[in-house]
Amino acid sequence: MIPFQFYHILLWLICLFPFKVSAKHDTLEHVSVLGCSFYLAMINTWDFNNTENTRFYNTICTYQPAFESWAICVYDSVNRDNTTFEKSLYQIQLQCHCANSSNSLSLQNYYDALNNGSIYARPEPTNNGKINFPIHINDTIRNQIIFAYHTYGRNLDISNRYGAYIYIYFIFVLVVATFLNYSQYTAFSNTLFKYKLIRWTRGRLIIPTLLKQHADYFVKGKYIIALIPTRSEALIISGYILHHIYLLSVGYEFDSQGYLFPSMRLQKLRFFADRAGILAFANFPLIILLSTRNTICEYLTDVKYSSLIMFHKWIGRIMFIDVILHGGAYLVYAMMTKSFGTSSKQAYYKFGILACFILLVLVVFSFGYFRRYYYETFLYGHIILAIWFFYICWKHVENLGWKEWIYSAIFIWVLERAIRWFRLLNSGLLNAHLQLIGDDLIKISIDKPKDHFGLHFYLNSKPGQYYFIYFIHPMIFWQSHPFSVMNFDRKIVMVIKPKGGVTKYLQKMLKKSYTGELDIKVGIEGPYGTSAPLHHSNDIAFLTGGSGLPGPLSHILNLTSKQNLHCNISLYTVVRDINILHAFKEELFKLQESSVNIYLFITHPNVTNFGNNISPTSSGSNCQTALLSSNKDLEHLETFCTIYYHRPNIPQIISKLAKGNSSLSIICCGPPPFVDVTRNFTAEAILQNKNKSINYFEEFQCW
Asked: What is the CA 421 to chain-centroid distance, rounded?
């Protein structure tokens, strides 16, 4: 049976192909039609005056001698190639349609105009008399005008092609990332990671943070809040920015005769405006692709979702700059040519201005301040503004082209949402038991349904993966949040620390409950993420803090369940109090007969033994019972765990782990500052230990 992931990936590959590529502008038939029509329409001595329609191309579309001159000019321009001449009919029809003229012209009518015009055509008269016969345009002038249209059309086509080059850059980046990530799944990494160049690259460029912070927010004052990329992410983003600047700057060809533009400055300004606008459109599918949970990038490359979201943010910012450059250049162009009054009445111009404004609002409300303190408002506002922005962009180019970028982006978004719903419906509504542990932890146990036919395959997660949970309650059912989980005895178990929104609401519900417990229906979507490949390492160390214990504990239980395990496993857990340990007492007790080295660091200054640290729930009658039970259970941990009542020395722990020649994997999950410190000191250990292969895996979720 072919796994579902195969069909999933196949759908994503299909969606990467645009529905329809914009027609090329720099083709011989296209530029010939435009060049000839431009020159003939500028002649004001035609013996024709139609006051009912004063549009630019009306004369050459409806006055027979002018139209015959047009056919002759196009035929001479395409070097008498019948095939190309026949293709030019479509361009003729388009222009006449824009002039509000009939576009029902057939190919026979077109050839008749050419044949009749060729019989009666004369050279263009030099006097100002009325022209009522078909004319031949001077070959030199005709070729110069066609070249001017060639440079204009070439810039449009090459800009669209450069848009595809953006994807080539990211394909290259993801291929390299795939090689590095999947090399960790083989024993080859134990040799590869010892080489000096590889160690330097990983220790200096790939693993460390950029400014000592990555998981933790960078905060400056009250409103400047941001997530800083890692060094590897920063290098990729910098490469993208430089690549983008290059694409904006090269590949131009200009017309020195100035037929289409009054000056070279205006010509360059217009070409640059078009280039920036098309590159902005080319980013649309990539921005959507990198922001989706069910993305082919994560499936195929093993790149973390948090990294993909980081790229999503920065590509969006560069796209915003492209839009500003595009709109600003067109505004300056309109002011220099004194055409702003006329242009601003056009529908495409109005929608372009509106799109700039909506994008500005979307970018402002994407700042870290709103993501951190008003996440739900940011999320749904972001989606609504993005949908509105795409619609207005479509209206902006409705009659111009480049809609394939919008179609592809919309298709990716719809496909990804459909996969989300499939995952959610596949799990069905499940029974969840919520229990308040102390005052600030909630343990959630979800019963797995019986699966006799393999229909609920999405409920079988691997260690380190996470689910998005929907709590079916009238006040919060539409919200979902990611939580690390572990599978234990036909249950999906997680422990969360309430912060705001859904989790804070659940905490209030539990505190109002007499028992501190609650049963609720949930929907789960996932699993997401990947499981760290630990089986090739001789030493495995888990560093956890706060509520980051579930993922690492799931790894340990999975490893210790295997026969012939040949590795040394250590667990370093940092907790403020023992509530999190009480929440996972059953899972921890299963390790007492194992060879796992467990080190517990309890950091609360008032905690000297387990009994003093039990926080009762609001259920008064059960407080004493819970306290005595917790004392009995948690004192049991002292028999097989080493316990310290102070903060751990992370550099010292990592330095000790890095000694020797055996391969080492470090897995970290905990509060943001804890994760950043562990990441940076692991990078230092990689540089300092030339005889040891060190892997680093992070299971912290932040985007």
From this structure: 20
**What does the pLDDT read at residue 661?**
83
> 8-17, 118-127, 268-277, 564-573: which has the highest mean pLDDT?
268-277
| CB proximity list for 348: less than 8 A, separation 6 or greater | 395, 396, 397, 398, 399, 400
Instruction: Examine the pLDDT at 628 and tell me if it is beyond 70.
Output: no
Which of 485, 379, 385 has the alpha carbon at shortest distance from 427?
Answer: 485
Provide the 10 A C-beta neighbour count for residue 604: 13
> What domains are there in the chain, each with its CATH number?
28-137 (no CATH), 149-422 (no CATH), 429-525 (2.40.30.10), 539-613+623-698 (3.40.50.80)
At 423 the pLDDT is 82
pLDDT band (50, 70, 90) for residue 6: very low
Question: What's the chain's Rg over C-alpha atoms?
Answer: 33
Candidates 131, 201, 133, 153; CA nearest to 34 is 153
User: Which pLDDT band, with edges at 50, 70 and 90, does 456 fall under?
Assistant: low
Query: Using an 8 Å Cβ cutoff, are 113 and 69 in contact?
Result: no
pLDDT value of position 1: 33
Question: What per-residue string of b and e applies to 475-511 under the rule 16 or more CB within 10 Å gives b?
Answer: ebeebbbbbbbbbbeeebbbbbebeeebbebbbebbe
Q: What are phi and psi of 77, to 5 degrees?
A: -75, -35
If DSSP codes are grouped into helix, strand and coil, which group holds residue 199? helix
Supply the DSSP symbol for 204: I
CA dihedral 406, 416, 670, 674 (to 10 degrees): -20
pLDDT of residue 474: 83
Residues β-bridged to residue 480? 470
The model's pTM: 0.88
Instruction: List residues bridging with 568 in a β-sheet.
Output: 539
Residue 328 CB-half CA count within 13 A: 7
- d(CA 667, CA 286) in angstroms, rounded, equals 30
Contact 361, 385 (CB under 8 A): yes
